[in-house]
């Protein structure tokens, strides 16, 4: 019912395309024209980018009413993304689709709806995306479960989403090409949890379950097409690959130093992926994640030497080196670069001037509600156990108004609350790529450890 009323808001936008998107129209065999339009409420900029395989193929201007509409004389069917910085979302075009979007940047994903020819498939994608996001935000505790309870929980969740997938597939009757993405969005998050379980369980409980896993635990890997080029940049598939390659170190012969584990990952990726485009994407991801984990300069040189032997992606190689340089600025005993922060009174804050004693610096966003609540609860518990440490929470929401509202609503205690007013700056200078990131600072403001997690079972050892 809610979706129906939201669709009514499209009527003024659809007047110009009703004839184009009518089911009664016949299309020529060689006609690949398509239409893309919509409305952006509270826009962050005056442009939208339509992208294919992470490459911008069109820059679309918003008009004075924050609307846009464009015709493509020839648009190949397939998966695209549209970006309205700093957010993006997927959009699938079939032949001759006429797709209209409407969204509010204050709730980008939750407010997004599609209308017009091709809307049902795309509304399925956003519904499945939101189901997966809700599932992920509520999944922190499942990695504490024993294997039997863990399997029962994720299988139960999967059955519910699979029933939704089967129902919508039957109703919409989509083709095999779209089903590649629909099935990936259904299955990959589920399988990623299975890959993450051994490592996450040990991380959170200090209990090693690797040797106790059933022999058939990873049999599902035999059914995965690791060389399907259509999925190279599709987020659910990429996240699964990240989890799988991290999990390969759940073996005695590769346990040990980070440098050895990650070189082993490179070699495994080289053996699994025959498609060079996919291989490059996976190698880039391994390199990026490794550089966040190990700040030893000599190790970095050795790792990057191995990476460069296998990667043929020259542009991404430059980006990886840039990230490596930024990470070196977060090494022990260095000071954090200044970023744009404000306090609850909207006063600017210099991080290097407010640190007066040992400090735990953690991050949160209202987009991940479950994490927001858990991380503050964890910080409060740690502060009571370790009163000699200060706790600073940095919010990375786009909107300072949303941040202020959440501060009033939740009344967080035992931590100093700050807000980042320039996410790109804090992302680049502090290499903030995941919300679980935590930094430990010495009393003089220098870095003690720039890459830990507040949920790490061993964190309290660092605080002693």
From TrEMBL:
* Name of the protein described by the UniProt record: Thioredoxin-like
SUPFAM superfamilies xrefs: Thioredoxin-like
Q: What organism does this protein naturally occur in? A: Flavobacterium terrae
On the tree of life, the source organism's domain of life is Bacteria
Enumerate the spans annotated as Thioredoxin domain: 330-464
Q: Name one Pfam family in it.
A: Thioredoxin_8
List the InterPro entries hit by this protein, alphabetically.
Answer: Thioredoxin-like_fold, Thioredoxin-like_sf, Thioredoxin_domain
Span-the-membrane segments of this chain are none
